[in-house]
Amino acid sequence: MIKKFKPINKAYKFRIYPSQEQQELIDKTIGCSRFIYNEFLAKAKDDEYNSYTKYSRQLPQLKKEYEWLKEVDSIALQQSLKDLDRAFKNFFSGKYNYPKFKSKTKARLSYRTQKFIRPSGTTNIEIKANKIKLPKLSWMKFAKSKEVKGKMNNVTVSKSRVGKYYISINVSQVLVTIVKDNQGELGLDLGIKDFLTTSDGEHILNPRHLSKYQDKLAKLQKRLARKEEGSNNWHKLKKKIAKVHIKIKNVRKDFLHKLSTRLTKENQLLVIEDLNIKGMLKNSKLAKHISDCSWNMFTTMLEYKSKWYDCILHKADRFFASSQTCSECGVKNSKVKDLSVRTWTCECGATHNRDINASKNLLKQGKLELGIN
Ligand SMILES: [Zn+2]
């Protein structure tokens, strides 16, 4: 699996609760920001638009003329010039109208300030618990409904027309998506001796301990049959059998989990046979029962894990004679019908292992049904 990082910007909006004094300063900053915007827009109209850099150099002179500009957050004033710069750039692109003056009654009541780190290492904006510190305003409470994650860029302070105050915190975050790096495709032939065989030629055996416990179980069950039902020994034996059953279940489950995880993670396409056609007649009832359980559990695991790991699980057509058809030339060889034939050579010259050939056919058939060439 490959993790892909994509940078995104996100805004968190919260209501803030400034004191009377803080409200007045916010109102003043909003007013000053609007004043700066309109002042430089007027300059641009008289002459022609200059650059953000040139205009921001004129700010100190303006502050000497209008002393009250010094009372508010100086970054907000610079940000106002940035907004004007953006408006002109939009206009020059030909897609927008010439910038308009901001009206006291109609324009949005807001200003924006930017976060920066001072040489001393402290920052001009801080968040602690449910309090935020903004330049010139100091600490105030906000309705923190969620954690602010990511790198903070700027904060917009706004006031609604009914007099409520808000902050919008803009942050840079990284969006993590998972992309599959292994593009394998496999046909899986389920069996009894080998639990499964893949079209890549891998034989996956049943877990080593399983047959040991299965033998033990068979012996215990034979002994149980000879005991008098309901007797002490019968009950003891019953308990023992139950324990072996649990052991088998756990060993099998663990094995199936590991295998299904690996296969769905490593491949983008898995083709299996519909289990109903699996005619495993030559095996004892017990072995068949256990295999059936394993296959059903395994298929269920493949089904949900393929969704987790972005893999397609396809059940091939049940009437498909997968083991008798040559995966090289497509000719059907009916002599292979006999289950004891493990390897065979087709008239085309290809020599096949029965199970590998079957899984190769499964993959072919699955792709055909899905329309994959
Ligand atoms: Zn052939």
What small molecules accompany the polymer chains?
zinc ion
Average pLDDT, rounded to a whole number, is 89
Largest sheet: 7 strands, antiparallel
User: What class do helices, strands and sheet pairing give?
Assistant: alpha+beta
Q: Which overall shape is indicated by the principal axes computed on the Cα atoms?
A: elongated
Give the radius of gyration.
Answer: 37 Å
Any low-confidence stretches, pLDDT <50, length ≥5?
none
- How far do the termini sit from each other? 25 Å
Strand coverage percent: 15-25%
Count of discrete domains:
2
The run of helices and strands is EHHHHEEEEEEEEEHHEHEEEH
Description:
The protein has 373 residues and is of the alpha+beta class. It folds into 2 domains: 2-178, no CATH class; 184-370, no CATH class. The chain contains 8 helices and 14 strands. The protein has a 7-stranded antiparallel β-sheet with strand order 2-6-7-1-5-4-3. Strand 3 (126-128) and strand 4 (131-134) form a beta hairpin. Bound molecules: zinc ion. Zinc ion is lined by residues 326, 328-329, 331, 346, 348, 350.
